[in-house]
Amino acid sequence: MTELRARLAEIADLDDVASLLAWDQQTMMPAGGAQARAEQRATLGRITHERLACDDLARLLAELEPYEQGLEAGCDEASLLRVTRRDHERARRVPSDLHTAMALAAASAIPVWVEARARSDFALLRPHLERQLELRRRYVDCFEDFSEPYDVLLADFEDGLDTAAARSALEALRRGLEPLLGELRERAGAVADDCLRGHFPIDGQRRLSKRVLGQLGFDAGSWRLDQTVHPFAANPAEGDVRITTRYDERDLASALFSAIHEFGHGLYDAHIPHAYRRSPLGRIGASMSLHESQSRLWENFVGRSPEFWQWATPVLRDALGPAAPRADAETLYRAVNKVSPSLIRVEADEVTYNLHVILRFELEQELLAGTLAVAELPEAWNARMRSDLGVDVPDDARGVLQDVHWASGAFGYFPTYALGNLVAAQLWKRLHAQLPDIGAQIADGDFAPLRAWLGENLHRHGRRQTLRETLARLTGSSALDPEPYLRYLRTKLGDVYGL
Amino acid sequence: MTELRARLAEIADLDDVASLLAWDQQTMMPAGGAQARAEQRATLGRITHERLACDDLARLLAELEPYEQGLEAGCDEASLLRVTRRDHERARRVPSDLHTAMALAAASAIPVWVEARARSDFALLRPHLERQLELRRRYVDCFEDFSEPYDVLLADFEDGLDTAAARSALEALRRGLEPLLGELRERAGAVADDCLRGHFPIDGQRRLSKRVLGQLGFDAGSWRLDQTVHPFAANPAEGDVRITTRYDERDLASALFSAIHEFGHGLYDAHIPHAYRRSPLGRIGASMSLHESQSRLWENFVGRSPEFWQWATPVLRDALGPAAPRADAETLYRAVNKVSPSLIRVEADEVTYNLHVILRFELEQELLAGTLAVAELPEAWNARMRSDLGVDVPDDARGVLQDVHWASGAFGYFPTYALGNLVAAQLWKRLHAQLPDIGAQIADGDFAPLRAWLGENLHRHGRRQTLRETLARLTGSSALDPEPYLRYLRTKLGDVYGL
């Protein structure tokens, strides 16, 4: 076990260093470093993959089998061995050449995506997407024992969930959302968000984000907040949580909600127990749905609640000074909950966000299966945007080119965004039962009980349990259940829209 | 050769990533990340050392011997094989355990040094220095074929120079400096630097540094300038040069000269040819004297020249606005050349700087030999400061605790600072002969010819030649000659002080 732990600590260090390289690239790196940085990331990825797949680790795991059988199920050592075996076996199936080819394909496709999106020129990106799909099919071919090829890709972002289960949950979600969206369309004029539009200087917005984050639990001794084109969270080491947001002078809500969203990710990272650090038990990204549940819980269940705006409205006035809107807490609360189908996923409201995700989830399955050709993707995208959201896509930049995921090869990632919403609601239901005063606490700006509950019930478990095991422990069932989420949306939007 | 190049590219990538980790730690990292970052750096160092020392590399180098013998001496492939063999053989002598112990000793001693310096408490640091010396003695014991133990440490920072040669050059330097310093002492009142003291807002100083750097050759597409406690330069990838400076509102010169100094390092890095990147031929830190010659050439030979101040004085007035001193170019030029023995090396004038370095060089040889005990170090330090510089040390914070080098284990580094001065003067003499209009060009703010000369004659050679080979190529002799440097100082200070 000592040798195993030492090897796993090195692998965890390399993963954390890779996370720093990615953070730096998006926040600090001069543009001139892009090519060399891609090579560094490929090198680091190759070394990490080799160490995870190596014969020495295979031998160690084989030697430890008798010891493992004597361990109590679910204890830390048993969990460590289980997740190590899983990561090792998955890595071992993938030849180093293919692993490197995937890293290099992403590095070369991402700048092309940037240009293609800027020029709204899908043809530029098309050969790169075709190459990515070819590589992903070769990747799938490395595996056995799956029901459908997409299972293999999904497993990289969600340990222990197959496509059928994700599909079933997301289809139930869509069935539940459609009538709600119909009702909201009829009441479209009932909510205005004018108070969020205007001119809000970035200094004031930054002050607002920092004050809100400070109250939520952002501590300058171990956190940073920076500005990037695409907000994200990174955790390049224990005690070092970095989140970013982006500012739009014409929009009061965008930077704040991005900051709160990334805070949710960051808090999960910040709460990984020291004992799980430098080990795969700290790699909580193994369930992106759980990770996303945390960002969306803070962004939506907290940040878009009426109680939050009772607390935040005076904070906002103070931070923005004369630039603050004159709206009261109730008006702001209603404005941030306005539902309105639109083109861009990351700017979507809480309801239609899920439809954006389901559309991608379904299209990427067709792409992988080959039933949809890359050349036909823009047309398919636009048709789905019309049928699912009722929106006409004016150009590919605001359509199929808006997200980086496919260019970077991350097929299988999208469903975790919407699953995160379901999981957030399942957790919220449970925590609400155990913290009946949570609303009043939020209205007082007291987020400590919520932080403590999440830390105790989810965060401190690291990667000890899968998503399903976590749901079973906290809700009594391992099922992904869309009902709590649908009920939450219906209750809140019923209140906001007077349904 | 293809396999060798692939392996060396990985090692170079790991070195560059290590440089990013160090940069990030000093500029961006929240304090909470310090412990985990130390582990990451140790892990990366261990992996790099293993790859450099590994049997596969030994086998490859052995297989390539016949091929190497057929190569033209000094061609790129021959140079690549020579430096690879050197790095490999040095790494192979050092057991991985000792390498890790040295990395961890540095990681644990540096925070203690920070505290010891803050509290001016040498006793805190003493056991760490003793441990460092013990490890360095074990390190020396890994080697054979040296004249004195210090040779082994020096070789890590200066390939191909032994202690005797460094000692001989630095003793000649001291002999030359002593009479000059005596004359300057008698004329101490002849130069005033009041114009550099006052209140100079940091925004204006930052604007000044950026304008000057922009003219020297800093380009925002591939450079960054940040603020740190200790200025430094880093080059974490091709196309990515990062320098730092520090601002003191009461001092007009400090930030500007630090920025110019680090620019000199950065330009050397920026000019490493693409073909030498991702290979040990790009590791120009193998001669720290050459590297330091570049920073000191820009800082002193350019930045403290009368011609520079002809160009820079209006720039300074414009950048600082009403906060600018009313001094003219001549007054500023004289002020930045004031000589006055003081306590702190990094704040020392051009003359006494060398005495600070020689003092450290001699004390660290005694420490390594054991003729000076760590416990007696502060007393020895203070005695030398009195005898060499005529300065009384009021406390260890401003004495033996001022530099991080020994706490970090970098014994053998100091002499390269003063040797860099000698080398800068030897290069400057040569370039002045080839660029007779350099003074007029500097006065015009035209630094392109100087950049081009350095690029062509030094930078583009990367690590193809050692310090001595470089000197032989450019000056006709491989000797470290203090005469050009002494003549440069005597001429300039004769002018400034009216000697």
Biggest beta sheet summary of chain A: 3 strands, mixed
List low-confidence stretches of chain A: none
Instruction: Provide the spatial order of strands within the biggest beta sheet of chain A.
Output: 1-3-2
Helix content of chain A: 55-70%
Biggest interface found: A-B, 39 and 39 residues
User: Could you report the average pLDDT of chain A, rounded to the nearest whole number?
Assistant: 97
Percent in strands of chain A: under 5%
Question: How far from one another are the termini of chain A?
Answer: 59 Å
Question: Radius of gyration of chain A from the CA trace?
Answer: 22 Å
Give the oligomeric state of the chains in this entry, treating copies of one chain as homo and distinct chains as hetero. homodimer
Secondary-structure element series of chain A: HHHHHHHHHHEEEHHHHHHHHHHH
Structural class of chain A: mainly alpha
What gross morphology of chain A would you assign? Answer: globular
The beta-strand count of chain A equals 3
* Count of DSSP H/I helices of chain A: 21
Task: Give the tags.
homodimer, 499 residues, mainly alpha, three-stranded mixed sheet, 21 helices, 3% strand, globular
Notes on the protein architecture:
2 copies of one chain form a homodimer. The first copy, chain A, contains 21 helices and 3 strands. A 3-stranded mixed beta sheet of chain A has the order 1-3-2. Helices cover 63% and strands 3% of the residues of chain A. With 499 residues, the first copy, chain A, is mostly helical. The model of chain A has no long low-confidence stretch (mean pLDDT 97). Chains A and B meet through helix 1, helix 2 and strand 3 of A and helix 1, helix 2 and strand 3 of B.
